[in-house]
Amino acid sequence: MFLRRIITSSLLILMIIAVIFLEWLCALAVTLFIALGLHEFFGMLDKKGVVVYRYFGTILGVLIPLSIMFRFELTKGWEFLFVVLAILFLVLMQIKRRGSSGAILGISTTIFGIIYISWFFSFLIKIRYLDAGLGLLSALLLITKSCDIGAYLIGSRFGKTPLAPNISPHKTVEGSIGGTIFSVLVALACAPFLGLNLMHLAILGFAISILAQLGDLSESLIKRDCNIKDSGSIFPGMGGALDQIDSLLFTAPAFYFYVTAILQK
After folding, report:
1. Which of 28-37, 101-110, 217-226 has the lowest mean pLDDT?
2. pLDDT at residue 84, as a whole number
3. Fewest CB within 10 A of the end CB: N or C in the chain?
4. Is 244 exposed, middle or buried (0-12, 13-18, 19+ CB in 10 A)?
């Protein structure tokens, strides 16, 4: 399992290096992960017996990153337009169905998947399209994923105290601390990308590590509710696409708003 993780991680790193330098290729890669993540999310709900609109949800979820990629913007808050239209069409489709059993659950979980996976992860494209977006996106990926690596390495070696046993029994307090330390150290190393002082970088690294771990726990909560271990098996030893992007789902939008509000005034 450890060897498969190393091989898969190395291939993912090479893929990221290959696509991150070109804006359009980076956007396509993000769109692909969104499509795979939505497919896995709706698949988990199917196994749980929740009737969702998986094809509609996946198509609309893919349109969000593509609209950012092609800089399509009808209104200033155009993302919310997608959500409003999604709710409208979902209600119409539910009305056409016979019976109303599970209507609220089906509509709400479909909308949740679009927002949670598609909208949140699409902020990676927005970051890449900013001025100095290559450096900013590189910093976010390095800080966020260093938390995953630190939590795994420290937790597997020294972890004894359960962090959230009802959600993810293998996560430990020691691993969480290790992930935070790794994130802070990498944030300090990202000074050339961000141009912040050391204290500011340390605070940023700490905040991103907390959000990354909350993102990981949120997906673990969904998987536990659906009674499955991994969202998929596309990445040997590391699960599915959603398992790879979960820690970025909260850090990406938070980092984007931070960057646009503080660094690029």
Report:
1. 101-110
2. 82
3. C
4. buried
Its sign, for the CA torsion 249, 74, 69, 62, is: positive
Helix ranges restricted to H, 101-247 = 103-113, 120-121, 123-128, 133-158, 173-189, 191-194, 198-226, 241-245
Helix, strand, coil shares of the chain as percentages rounded to 5?
A: 75, 5, 20
Distance CA 52, CA 107 (A): 7
Contact call for residues 240 and 234 (beta carbons, < 8 A): yes
* For the chain, percent of residues with pLDDT exceeding 70: 92
Q: Are 204 and 164 in contact (CB under 8 A)?
A: no
Task: Tell me the one-letter amino acid at 125.
Answer: I
DSSP character at residue 239: B
b/e code 134-161 from CB counts within 10 Å (16+ = b): bebbbbbbbbbbbbbebbbebbeeebee
Residue with tokens 């359960």: 162
In the chain, how many domains are there? 1
**pTM, two decimal places:** 0.91
DSSP code of residue 30: H
